[in-house]
Specification:
Blueprint: H1 2-137, E1 140-146, H2 152-156, E2 164-165, E3 173-177, E4 189-190, E5 195-199, E6 202-204, H3 210-215, H4 218-225, E7 229-235, H5 242-247, H6 259-274, E8 279-291, E9 294-297, E10 310-313, E11 317-320, E12 326-328, H7 331-344, E13 347-348, E14 356-357, E15 360-371, E16 377-386, H8 393-396, H9 401-424, H10 436-440, H11 442-445, E17 449-457, H12 464-478
Parallel strand pairs: 1-6, 1-17, 7-16, 7-17
Antiparallel strand pairs: 2-3, 3-5, 4-5, 8-9, 8-12, 8-15, 10-11, 13-14, 15-16
């Protein structure tokens, strides 16, 4: 019994121990869990404390930024107030300046108007002075041009022109050695007769360029824009360089352009420049040739049955019936007309030149100008002429139809000389009507004109007879005084 009781107690105690162990194990688990929770909470606490510290730092920075922004705001307000004050002052100054600018603008407009009026007056005065200078130089002037040796001529003449010299620095005198010539053909004999001296308004040596030649006639070209009739013609035997001087070489470059293309370029360039001064110009071009005393329209359709006659229109205007008149506005248009005319011009072979021009060609440009500011108007005519070869019959070697051409050419050139001599002697009757050429050019050879003659001469020694004949004729022209040119008012 007692043993059984003890056993019972032992069992109960064992159960109690197991129960306690179970409770202890459970408590240990709870402790472990609690410890873990505490560690976690400690970690959270540490993290939150770090966040709090970071936020506190940010708050401190934000407070500093806020303090700085408040300071900047105050400064900005102060600056804004200052700017507003300055703006008000600037507006006031602006109103004052605007009033002053308006006043100065009115003064400037009045001054500009005055200067413009003075400019127009200056332009008119300049035109008068420019043409007075041209008149003092003479309304008929003669330029002599000696062409250079070409091709095989250099070999034949050893590249030298010993029978010609240019003794003066003023470039006006051409001196020629006799070389056994017939003295009856020579005028202006000097010394023992071995040398002959010819003086002109200007003499161009063989090395002279087209640009140098044109420079000396550019002011004369300007006279056409000023309302004067201007005539420039080239005279000389075939092969002396007339066509080269007036037109330049076939398919040549701009640097070799002759007097006609250079004149056209200057005319249109100057007209464009004068637009700023109120001038407006209209241009009308024509191109004809006189072949065997018959006028041909070089810009027409080539119909031979169309007849052209020289007629007088008005007091001193010369017109040609049924002639093509082309209104032009640019150098390019005129260039196209020149090419067409060059193609149509009559050429034939002679002993003197294998491509001798057998007709007188006349390029005419009528210029009509008006100034909307001053009310001025003017009208000029520019005649640029390449005369047919002036060689005598025995020199040309012409036969048949060519012989007839040469006779017609020599007759018209002879009549040209007669007209010039009559003008020089101030005859009451001037025989303009004796040839188509002089009849056509009468308003460019008389008192209401400015005339320039190129006498072109060959450097070849075997051409000396014709050279001296040309120089003798040119000397007669140079002695002619046709009076004072009058500006033509439209």
């Amino acid at each position: 019994m007692i043993c059984s009781k003890k056993t019972q107690q032992v069992l109960e105690m064992s159960q109690e121990i197991r129960k306690l162990k179970s409770q202890l194990s459970h408590t240990e688990q709870e402790l472990t869990s609690t410890t873990q929770k505490v560690d976690h909470l400690e970690l959270i606490k540490s993290t939150q404390q770090q966040q709090i510290s970071s936020l506190q730092a940010e708050v401190a920075v934000t407070r500093e930024e806020a303090t700085r922004l408040r300071s900047m705001h105050s400064a900005t307000n102060a600056e804004l107030s200052s700017t507003k004050l300055h703006l008000e002052q600037s507006l006031q100054e602006g109103h004052v300046k605007d009033a002053k600018i308006k006043q100065l603008s009115e003064m400037s407009e009045n001054l500009e108007k005055t200067l413009t009026e003075q400019s127009y007056n200056h332009e008119s005065t300049l035109r008068v002075l420019r043409n007075t200078i041209q008149e003092l130089k003479g309304n008929i002037r003669v330029f002599c041009r000696v062409r250079p040796l070409l091709g095989e001529e250099r070999i034949d003449e050893d590249g030298m022109i010993p029978h010609m010299s240019f003794p003066d620095d003023a470039r006006k005198v051409l001196e020629i050695a006799d070389g056994g010539l017939n003295e009856s053909t020579v005028s202006n004999r000097k010394g023992s007769g071995s040398r002959y001296e010819f003086a002109f308004d200007r003499t161009f040596q063989p090395e002279s360029t087209q640009a140098e030649v044109f420079e000396d006639i550019s002011q004369l070209v300007q006279s056409a824009l000023d309302g004067y009739n201007v005539c420039i013609f080239a005279y000389g035997q075939t092969g002396s360089g007339k066509t080269y001087t007036m037109e330049g070489p076939i398919n040549g470059c701009d640097e070799e352009g002759g007097m006609i293309p250079r004149t056209v370029t200057q005319i249109f360039q100057t007209a464009r420049e004068l637009e700023s001064r109120g001038w407006k110009y209209e241009f009308e071009a024509s191109f004809l040739e006189i072949y065997n005393e018959t006028i041909r329209d070089l810009l027409g359709n080539g119909k031979e049955e169309v007849k052209h006659e020289v007629k007088m229109a008005g007091s001193n205007d010369v017109t040609v019936t049924n002639l093509t008149l082309s209104a032009v506005t640019s150098e390019k248009q005129v260039s196209s007309l020149l090419k067409k005319a060059s193609h149509n011009r009559a050429v034939a072979e002679t002993k003197c030149n294998e491509r001798s021009s057998r007709s007188h060609s006349v390029f005419r440009l009528k210029l009509t100008g008006s100034n909307e500011h001053t009310g001025e108007s003017c009208q000029g005519t520019l005649n640029l002429i390449d005369l047919a070869g002036s060689e005598r019959l025995k020199e040309s070697g012409s036969q048949g139809a060519r012989l007839k051409e040469t006779k017609a050419i020599n007759s018209s050139l002879s009549n040209l000389g007669n007209v010039i001599m009559a003008l020089a002697k101030k005859d009451s009757h001037i025989p303009y009507r004796n040839s188509k050429l002089t009849y056509l050019l009468q308003n460019s050879l008389g008192g209401n004109s400015k005339t320039l003659m190129f006498v072109n001469v060959s450097p070849k020694e075997d051409h000396l007879n014709e050279t001296l004949n040309s120089l003798r004729f040119a000397t007669k022209v140079n002695q002619c005084n046709i009076g004072t040119a009058q500006k033509k008012v439209k």
